């Protein structure tokens, strides 16, 4: 089996122990002469690696945009340093056959087997040296991080591909953070707009309610004013067709007044004091149904109105009209002091069609006349 013999002008360094019966670098056998041989590493002579390989635990969640970009830039710079490994030539490792035969198959090693290929195009290539040594020619490992998508895009630099992926991930995280901030801002703006709209609507409703109240108040006042004017017009028309019984007088007794002078104990009419002979007028157009002596009432005239209401003129000194139709304001008699009286006056009574006495002052006011 061929092996790679070290060049005579570049002997391997001595490491301080005898190898009997093994030629040294100059071709002289070792042994008792105390010559030194080539040091070949073995399982017993290799000092085991101590310590642990620690991998930092990655924290979950999306970091802030500045932190993400900073980490991405640092990782990208590191990946760029890895990319420079492609500029270095492949290193051949020479091992004696005795040691190479005792080594495990590279494909069976965790994390290494996937990098080893049997063909000549990629992976690790094995060969035989000139002195029975096995040579493992390692292809550059910088292509180990290239994905299928990177390869389809023509990327051959694993470091550059890693840097690009880190930057892309950082950009995606930044975009996600920006989108989340935009959504939050839009939600806040929408909430503020809704609050302002609700406030404006409430103000508009309050204003509309106030305007409605004012409109109703104005309408009520207008209706009251219209009713007052209508009543004034009605009374004015009535007053044109009604007349007070005397043009000049003094009220001496009112309706319902108590006293021993009246047989019923209460006054049933309205007394207008005036000089004897003062003309008496018909309060409204009607028919004289009765005229003559009536006991305590003295001389009395009864005027019946179209609605059946009777007007009694009592204690007259004389009667001008004793029957027939008369008009409002016509003179029908004169003031006197006949019957149960204490002086000259007109005792006026107003009776309903049923014969009940009512307040003459209220009846005259309802006709637009004030006593």
Automatic annotation (TrEMBL):
Top-level division of the source organism's lineage: Bacteria
Matches recorded under InterPro entries: Cell_wall_metabolism_enzyme (IPR050570), Dup_hybrid_motif (IPR011055), M23ase_b-sheet_dom (IPR016047)
M23ase beta-sheet core domain boundaries: 266-360
Source organism of the structure: Streptomyces enissocaesilis
Xref: SUPFAM superfamilies: Duplicated hybrid motif
The protein's name: M23 family metallopeptidase
Cross-referenced CDD domains: M23_peptidase
Residue ranges of the region described as Disordered: 26-61, 192-228
């Amino acid at each position: 089996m061929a092996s790679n013999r070290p060049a005579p002008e570049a002997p391997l360094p001595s490491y301080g122990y005898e190898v009997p019966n093994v030629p040294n670098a100059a071709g002289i056998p070792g042994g008792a002469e105390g010559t030194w041989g080539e040091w070949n590493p073995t399982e017993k002579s290799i000092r085991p690696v101590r310590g642990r390989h620690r991998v930092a635990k990655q924290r979950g969640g999306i970091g802030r945009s500045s932190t993400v970009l900073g980490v991405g830039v640092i990782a990208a710079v590191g990946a760029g340093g890895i990319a420079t490994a492609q500029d270095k030539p492949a290193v051949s490792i020479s091992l004696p056959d005795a040691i190479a035969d005792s080594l495990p198959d590279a494909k069976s090693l965790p994390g290494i087997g996937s990098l080893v290929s049997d063909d000549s195009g990629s992976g690790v290539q094995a060969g035989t040296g000139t002195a029975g040594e096995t040579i493992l020619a390692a292809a550059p490992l910088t292509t180990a991080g290239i994905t299928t998508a990177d390869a389809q895009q023509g990327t051959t630099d694993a470091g550059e591909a890693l840097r690009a992926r880190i930057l892309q991930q950082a950009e995606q995280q930044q975009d996600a953070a920006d989108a989340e901030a935009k959504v939050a801002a839009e939600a806040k703006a929408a909430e503020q707009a809704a609050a302002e709209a609700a406030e404006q609507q409430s103000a508009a409703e309050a204003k509309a309610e106030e305007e409605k109240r004012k409109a109703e108040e104005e309408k009520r006042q207008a209706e009251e004013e219209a009713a007052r004017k209508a009543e004034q017009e009605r009374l004015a028309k009535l007053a044109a067709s009604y007349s007070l019984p005397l043009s000049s007088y003094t009220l001496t007794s009112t309706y319902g007044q108590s006293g021993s002078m009246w047989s019923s104990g209460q006054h049933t009419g309205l007394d207008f004091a005036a000089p004897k002979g003062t003309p008496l007028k018909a309060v409204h157009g009607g028919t004289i149904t009765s005229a003559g002596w009536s006991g305590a009432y003295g001389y009395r005239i009864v005027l019946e109105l179209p609605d059946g209401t009777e007007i009694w003129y009592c204690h007259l000194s004389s009667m001008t009209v004793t029957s027939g139709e008369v008009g409002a304001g016509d003179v029908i008699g004169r003031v006197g002091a006949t019957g149960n009286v204490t002086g000259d006056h007109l005792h006026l009574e107003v009776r309903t069609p049923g014969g009940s006495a009512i307040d003459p002052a209220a009846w005259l006011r309802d006709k637009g006349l004030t006593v």
